[in-house]
Design a protein that fits this description.
The chain has 376 residues and is an alpha/beta fold. It is built from 16 helices and five strands. The chain has a five-stranded parallel beta sheet, sandwiched between helices. The radius of gyration is 22 Å and the shape is flat. 41% of the residues are buried. Keywords: Cobalt, Metal-binding.
């Protein structure tokens, strides 16, 4: 590393710390000043976006997961970062759009929009014309936009793995319209395995890689009229569809029977019961997406993350096991679902629930899993 590179990295780290302090205090004006000062200090706009703002946002997620900041602080930090990005966009000047047109959008139901926004700004800096559609874009509206604007590619973002079935349908719809799709975000796995599984034309682990791939050009969709079962033949057993359709009944039944296994629930108030139901709903949702993808590891990763998040909030990890066992009983006629649940329960058994019962899932002093529903 040269002295100049070392100095640049030190400056970037310093501005990252300054932005983190401002964001944590909820001080929007200081946050804006930090970014403007970083640009004046000679740090390139792309580096400010990804190595300062992006780094701070990743830290926000880690701090929430560790229960060191509240949901309100997380939301406030994200809102400030959004406004800081807008300031950077205005400050860094207008860029010609001669490198092609890209539509950047989040999968319907995905409201973690900041990664997509960062990509959109990087693409603008690199000379692309960008249509940034933001969070939760319904597939039908996205396709209408593609027909109207004729972009060269779609960049689709999702952080929540439970949106993978929706992402699959959206990818297929874009390809049927003749537009190749590059995907990114935590939902697609750290190695892009679910991007390949769902037939995306490309995957990128970060904004720079996505911009490089788009600059090189994506190939035309190779299977523009593929159906879900073309990519995922195991869906023919209908387990995913049936579990998804019965989710409200499953959640209600498990929560009702959970009180028999966890005596402390008799003292839960309405809010605690609501949080418990939401946490059970997340377990069912991740079970369903594991059935959709045919990947047991996805369910295991969610449960591992859930265990860590609950432990950070003083909820014993063993509280998950009774819910898994009850779901297995309810789904005993579903071969793949039952196997997933039995294996997950067995992996977590052996840690007894404390004599006084577990702490309420999503108790009154902390957020329950419904606030993010995903690994950070």
């Amino acid at each position: 590393m040269t002295a100049g590179q070392d100095t640049g990295r030190t400056a970037t780290a310093r501005y990252t710390d300054l932005l983190w302090d401002a964001v944590l205090r909820g001080d929007e004006y200081t946050a804006v000043d930090v970014v403007v000062d970083a640009l004046r200090d000679g740090i390139e706009a792309e580096a400010v976006l990804l190595e300062v703002i992006g780094a701070v946002q990743r830290r926000v997620g880690r701090e929430w997961a560790a229960n060191r900041i509240s949901v309100a602080q997380e939301h406030a930090a994200t809102a400030i970062n959004e406004r800081v990005i807008s300031t950077l966009s205005l400050t860094s000047g207008r860029h010609t759009g001669g490198r092609g047109r890209v539509t950047v959008a989040c999968v319907d139901g995905e409201w973690h929009a900041l990664p997509a926004r960062l990509l959109a700004e990087v693409l603008r800096l690199r000379g692309f014309t960008v249509d940034y559609l933001g969070a939760q874009v319904p597939a039908a509206h996205l396709i209408s936009h593609l027909h109207r604007t004729g972009p060269d590619a779609v960049a689709l973002s999702s952080s929540i793995a439970t949106r993978l079935p929706t992402a699959h349908a959206t990818i297929s719809a874009c390809q049927a319209a003749g537009v190749p799709v590059i995907v990114g975000g935590g939902a697609f796995g750290p190695d892009g395995r679910y991007a390949r599984l769902l037939g995306a034309d490309a995957w990128a682990p970060d904004a720079r890689s996505a911009a490089d791939a788009l600059a090189a050009g994506l190939p035309a969709p190779s299977h523009p009229h593929a159906q879900p079962m073309d990519d995922l033949p195991h869906l023919s057993d209908q387990e995913y569809t049936l579990v998804t359709r019965s989710t409200p009944r499953l959640v209600a039944r498990v929560v009702e029977r959970l009180a028999e296994r966890v005596p402390a629930m008799s003292g839960y108030d309405d809010e605690q019961l609501r949080h418990t139901a939401e946490d059970v709903r997340h377990i069912v949702d991740f079970l369903a997406v594991s059935l959709y993808t045919g990947d047991a590891e996805l369910f295991e990763q969610f449960l591992g993350w859930t265990t860590d998040v609950l432990a950070a909030r003083s909820v014993p990890p063993a509280v998950i096991v009774p819910a898994l066992d009850l779901l297995a009983e309810e789904l005993r006629d579903f071969t793949r679902a039952s196997e997933l649940l039995r294996d997950a329960s067995a992996a977590r058994s052996g840690t007894p629930v404390p004599a006084g019962g577990p702490a309420p899932a999503g108790g009154t002093d902390s957020a329950s899993l419904h606030e993010t529903g995903r690994p950070a």
